[in-house]
Amino acid sequence: xxxxxxxxxxxxxxxxxxxxxxxxxxxxxxxxxxxxxxxxxxxxxxxxxxxxxxxxxxxxxxxxxxxxxxxxxxxxxxxxxxxxxxxxxxxxxxxxxxxxxxxxxxxxxxxxxxxxxxxxxxxxxxxxxxxxxxxxxxxxxxxxxxxxxxxxxxxxxxxxxxxxxxxxxxxxxxxxxxxxxxxxxxxxxxxxxxxxxxxxxxxxxxxxxxxxxxxxxxxxxxxxxxxxxxxxxxxxxxxxxxxxxxxxxxxxxxxxxxxxxxxxxxxxxxxxxxxxxxxxxxxxxxxxxxxxxxxxxxxxxxxxxxxxxxxxxxxxxxxxxxxxxxxxxxxxxxxxxxxxxxxxxxxxxxxxxxxxxxxx
Length: 360
What we know:
By secondary structure, this protein is an alpha/beta fold. It has helices spanning 11-23, 30-34, 47-62, 78-92, 104-112, 126-136, 151-166, 197-202, 227-241, 254-264, 275-281, 295-302, 328-337, and strands spanning 4-8, 37-42, 66-70, 95-98, 117-121, 174-179, 189-193, 208-215, 243-247, 267-269, 284-290, 309-313, 344-347, 358-359.
């Protein structure tokens, strides 16, 4: 029996590979259950991601998975060395699992070798955009990127085009999306629900604190949201909900987090695991407030039955930077609008510092 190969580049991707593996039990698909799963970590360079990935890698080993740490970005020659070392396992794999179909690394691997069975697991809300672009036959572009092709994109365009075809169902190839998000599957593509059963089985239920917790976002770092608007609204949310902690996104800058701590008095927490696991282990606030992101879909599943209230604060148009992609507002609205029914929506007006948030 040939094995299964997963490529992950973030802690959330590895968490969702664990969730996918948990669903492949002898009571499910016997073929998948019998095939060994090897997880290849295409290690990023930023310390926060690397630290969380090492913790997640140990959890995966504890579950009986084989984890291979690949320094895929370790200087000159790393790309060629990685492709050479992974060529054999990739060619032999019966199933390939990827966490980020927009990743240039994943696209390059898929352009070289076509998997017979392909599974895409969540790496944030990008899964929604991936399914939509695949269904419309568009080239794969992250939602926060502008549509024009730069020099790097032009060079890689043939790779992206071929990889996009390899990510679509075809004769001799099945494609599955394993997701906790609401996606509209193109014809021929299978969608399997991720209910975070592994997370609920292994962790919690958590101890609940009396206050609220805020969940940070990297929308400032990706050039979508204005930093001044963001910091001000974080302070308003903290005051309105009595929040004491701010769970930082792994990509948030140290300068921004220092500003938030000084201006709001919030305790900034840099989690050592994905937030779904941190929240499930506890302690966690009775209310968790987030900006539009994956957690407004995943936390209600991970925290089901615990009594935690999850709320999402919409992004007002005035917060967006002029450099933001024209698609940004619409996509963020979709993320908010498609959140689970039990998630509260918070309406924000950001016209002047005197304005306050309205909670509905």
